[in-house]
Specification:
The chain is an alpha/beta fold and 781 residues long. It folds into five domains: 2-186, Immunoglobulin-like (Sandwich), CATH 2.60.40; 215-559, Glycoside hydrolase 38, N terminal domain (7-stranded beta/alpha barrel), CATH 3.20.110; 560-633, no CATH class; 641-737, Immunoglobulins (Immunoglobulin-like); 742-773. Keywords: Signal.
Length: 781
Amino acid sequence: MKMALRRAGIAALVMAAVGVTGSLGAGPAHALPASHDKHVQAPRTSTDGKFLELSIESTTPTTVTTTSTPTVVVKGTVKNVGDRPVEDVGVRLQRAPAIDNAADVRDALEFDQAIFDTVGEFDTVATSLERGESRPFTLSLPLRSTTGTSLEISEPGVYPMLVNVNGTPEYGGAARLDDARFLLPVLGVPSATNTRTSSTSASAVVAPDTSNPVGVTMMWPLATAPSLVGGIPGSVNDPVRLINDDLATELSDGGRLDALVDAVENATKPEIDADNKVRDSLCLAIDPDLVITVDNMTRGYLVVDNAADPTGAAHDGRGQDAASNWLSRIKTLAASMCTTSVPFAQADLAAVGTVAHPELTATAIDRPADIVDTILGVTSLRNFVWPDSGVLDSVTVDTLSTRPTTTLVAASSVDSSEAQLSSRITDTVDALAFDTAAAAAFAATGSNPSTPSYIDEDTAPQLETESRVARRQDALGAMAWSALTPTAVPRNQILAPPQLWSADAEDAGAMLSMLATLIRSGLATPQSLPALLGTQPGATDTATLEYPERATQDGPQTAVIDTAKAQLPRIDALELSLVDDPQVLLTPRSFTAPLREDLLRAMSSANRRDTSILSVRNAERAASIRAGNVTTSVNGLYQAVSVVSPGGVYTLASGQSPLLLVARNELPIAINVNLRVDAPPEMKISDIGPKQLPPRGSRQLTVPAEMNDSRKVVVSFSLTTTDGFQLGSPTSVTVRSNAYGRPLAAVTATAGGLLLFLAGRRLWHRYRGQPDPADEGYKRS
């Protein structure tokens, strides 16, 4: 069968090459026959080299309804990208049968050209197209007609469309040189055009089947790549520093984040969404790192000249007003609709689980909701986790199992015997499944398309060959398929764009317009996420999760994870030693928290799945710089607390005189320290216990010492945190005592003993009346 289909594809190419025009037959408007192997793919061009490049610039209508125009119009451009002229350049519009299963929502765009067997006529674009030259084209074809060539679409569905370009390169033969594909959602069929009798059944309006509408929930993510400079501890009054001013552009009029908010504001206006059905189906999914950054920008901020030099030269940022305006709009929206948070900085939860640090895990998973609530003044959903990757590994599941959690993952990553929206993973963890095909199509839209981790590489869309308009059409088709297929299960659909979504105003507006159209037409009903969490039971059996190898490849670098493992215990030890003074605004936690957050930012999944290799490399480089900045910063904080070397030789006044040392603290917070002493055996040093050093100040330490030796000895002193981590560098002190040394004491004792012996002997002889033998030979003068 596959060989026959390949031959059919070759035959189609030959017919296209010799300029066959017109319809090859009215292909069925319903599903392909079961025996028709749709997945045999031919090359997208019939030549080894690329000669022409075809790009779609607009389609009208984007979604066909019963009231839309009955003609499909496609506008685009053909460009000669080869090394020679191409003659007889012509284009035509083709379509394949309506998609009949969920897998083909993604795969249809890679079907063999022979599947697109309902075709229009070739339209000549240019008799000759020189190297580098471009020509626009416009193709127009009725949806259906009883009198002429048409797309033969007579019932609702999602139809794969293809624009085919043929030409004859110099020194070559006629061939198909490129094509462009997109999905056309048909929610209803308007009356036919060019009919002799408009009242016939062949030309009547065909409405969709609304007997079994799908419950629809759409996540609306608001996130960005980490922007705060890494390695700067918290402060009270210092303005924050950003690695660049890209966020100002995103927040300003026409920027990406402005467009995402504007689309929701327009779609939920009372005059447009009077019954709040669109609002009820949406849920804002907000990155806490984004609102932290924007909130800080509203107070003024700096942009560093070099991200690797966080405290170096910087200039004023330009986005303060834009940040204030955007944050105000978000507060208004969040107060009136479902709001949830995503893991901090879109951190890779598998990496967080690998580090296995309780405070880091809490910052990534537990605290985001509190951050969002505090800044926006709302109460967001709790016990809900949407990993940026869309998949969960076993380590993350174990982490989430310590708390009741519902997680949102790709349907393709859940292996369950029951086709339903919700599955039980463990006793405390349930999984909601979002529509994989729609999510992948969303990820392909916008200025910076990406390929999600849950999509196999062999089925990943060829994003680099498709125009933004075509990719937007694919997303609209993916959104509509379940609603147009009453037999598709489950009858609840969660639509989940990527958390870092590069959609512009047109993309965002088109998606929400489709959402509204599906609801207004009766094909879908709004299903709020809070209600979904409260009413969907888990499966009767326990499902398993699949964690693709691609998700591991998309994760952070091993060096970043190793940095986190090395620095987190040091950050904890420092925070434990810092003094929490109620009179001081800067607390130990607020001082050290940005460093932990920076490690999460270094584990961010942002831009790691982009189709642009440069974008991925820039993300990895930014993560490495951020992790390195944290290490440098923590080293600097530890070096900021030390014993000041007295220099020279320290002389003790007596054998039990104390040593006087000076300890310095350059941190903005007081700190408790212990003194560590390394002294030789002949010197005894008493433990002085923990001592508190004032912020940005010093303190004299009186160290009791006992030394019964006049020799010089070297004693090493250093400070440590309260749990033993060394602060600063050790200081060596040379000590000398004025006390008698042991040799001198021995000589003195011996001489004294001899003197006593001689004196005693003389007294003994005198007592006996005997001359002392020592006096023999002595004559008086």
